[in-house]
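User: My advisor, Dr. K., asked me to get a structural model of this assembly before our group meeting. I'm new to this, so sorry if the format is off. These are the inputs:
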Amino acid sequence: MTVDQIIFLVIAAGTLIAAFRVVTTGNLIHAAFWLIAALFGVAAIFAILHASFLAVVQVVVYIGAISMLFIFAVMLTRKDMRDQGPQLNRNWGFGAFLAALAFAGLVFLVHGWSGVAKTASAFPSDFDAVGALGNALVSPDAYVLPFEVASVLLVAALIGAVYVAYNRK
Amino acid sequence: MDFLKDPLKVAADWLLGIFSGWGMPDLWAQVLIGFLGIFILVALLMVLDIFLVWIERKVVSRFQSRIGPNRLGPFGLIQPFADIIKLLIKEDTTPEGADRTLYNLAPILSMMSVLILWAVVPLAPSILGVDLNIGVLYIIAAGAIGTLSIIMAGWSSNNKYSLIGAFREAAVMLSFEIPMLTVMLIPTIFAGSMGIGAITQAQDTWNFFLAPLAAVIFLIAAIAELGRSPFDMGEAESELVSGYNIEYSGMKFGMFYAGELLHAFTFGGFWAILFFGGYRFFGLEQVSAFLAIAILFFKAFIGYWIIMWVKYTLLRIRIDHMLAFNWKFLTPVAFVLLMTTALMNALLADASNWLYIGGMFLSNILVAWISLEVARSASRWERERVEGTGYAARRTE
Amino acid sequence: MVPLSWYLIFSAALFSIGLFGVLSRRNLIAILLGIELMLNSVNVNLAAFWRYGDVTNITGQVFAVIVFAVAAAEVSVGLALVISVYRKRNTVIADEIDMLKF
Amino acid sequence: MSSWVYIGLFLLVGLIIPVGAIVAAWVLAPKKSNPIKQTTYECGIETVGDSWVQFKAQYYIFALVFLIFDVETVFLFPWAVKLNSLGMFAVIEGIVFILILIVGLVYTWRKGMLEWV
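Assistant: The format is fine. Below is the predicted structure of the whole assembly, which you can bring to the meeting.
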């Protein structure tokens, strides 16, 4: 086993443990902090994959913004945070079964697929991933439409969410 | 001569020779050398941090017509060391009902979020730090960890004041990140890269002359990001005692305090790097790496001094004014400036160098002037509406 | 070198844990936390396929960035709904929000 | 060797040094705790109630606006990197992108949702 593999396994195990704590912890604030740990682990996975931009965006967007939103929302609905009885619903056994089934199915699919034998190719010497991303996002024959539509989507989400959450007196 | 030009490489080669002499594999030797180098850099930063305490106290005392620390050693230079001894031997209490893990983790994360910023600081032409091609976003990512540590400290202390302080501080820090991110796009446009090293190298003309308004907005957002006066909402002594760090004592409080000072200095440094050419100063940086580091630190200290000047001159702003200032003035101005810069950059792409600089400078001044005029007429409108005079009042009747 | 299958199995595990959270938690916010885990596992897959395919073809990263935007939109609207429901019904337990049942 | 290894080392050192300082203080400092010392600080008077504070929805609104703008700005970074080589069309696209964004800000502002009180 090489060093990369050990690093990957350590990070992956830590991320999965954190993710497991997210779905099992009773205290919601703790669940949010465990989520942050899991997201940080995913950012490290991106770094191992040499997807620098995604790794940093993961920290900026998920840890810096989305998890803050979660913590703020938990604080706003905090009366329900403790002494609420079981945190899992009646059918949690069925949920666990479905999740295990999904995992088994996905592993089966991965196992049967011939593409997994692929190895990562080396980067071309002057390859600039961020520059390539910029080119792809704004050149007319690539992803310019998703780029603009993402803007519309976010504005729609902003307007809708602010309208729903706003406390009209 | 080689050592003066590129001390890091000479030292690394020397150490690599020693380590491989011991029979260490090449990869491990390199990792160990990297670790040692980073450890020395961070340790030096902590020493610098100790002196920042002294500088801060001396400067604030001059602003307030006092002398400041002057008993221990020449000019009171030994004073910060006495402070450290006091922090070390002070009893560390944990409040009842505190969430111990998070309570202990928060000061560590707070310090760490500042220390990891130095990973991307280009100290000299030969010492670019970790030259990530996403350096600008890395600064924001480290800031996200800082915000997280504040929330952690506030929540885990089990104290009303610290919770309120942490949430106010977080709201302010989050809000001011937007203009900061936006103006960081402007040096990125000029350099054509997000790498901090590339941004420094691209500044044949300081970015300040190309985007003076962006530099000002960055400084304001940085001060808010640091949580220093006039944006020290998290600490607000008169209302919240000490804000998010109220329950901390001893070295844990010391971590927050030292982290804040080093953070301020670091942002002075980033201001210098993004808008004032970093280590560059009329080719002097090519003479020796040490000279380049000295230039960078000199510029960083000027930035730090301006941050202190603002802190000890202005009073704290009310939180609603603060957020309104950000969302209703700073953010729109930053976006308008970004659009103007992008447009001018494309229009002046083929122009001569002087025309390019002049056009950029004038467009910045124009945006600043127009936005100030708009803000002034809006506030006059508001004042007349409240006072019941003028056109606004007549229209609403 | 880490084999591609490890990334895929890791993301499958992350997805399944998220799915378990979505199906079994009672608290609405906890359900949204589970959805975040699922979206992240998708991103890991996209990044891994980019790295192990043709790296000059940036499509995987573009998709991942779009997923970030979608996640942001999802979480903002979702939590706004939770807060709105909490204000009206004073609960964030999914079982108790049964206004549409009758 | 990837530059992320150095970032990892920085994270490690950034953890070690504060932990070392806090552990040193823990070793050196006296430990004479009593229930009075451990009470929550509230300006010297008896603590009233627990630390539960009802926050207002305004915190959430600001975090929400921040989240949307954060994601949008992140989208703009790849655009800004390539701006010099892409020409006028890309500039117009970016400006349209920002203008759509500003529509959202203006809406929130006009509806009075950016007011703190």
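One thing worth pointing out at the meeting: Chain C has one domain: 4-96.

User: Perfect, thanks a lot.
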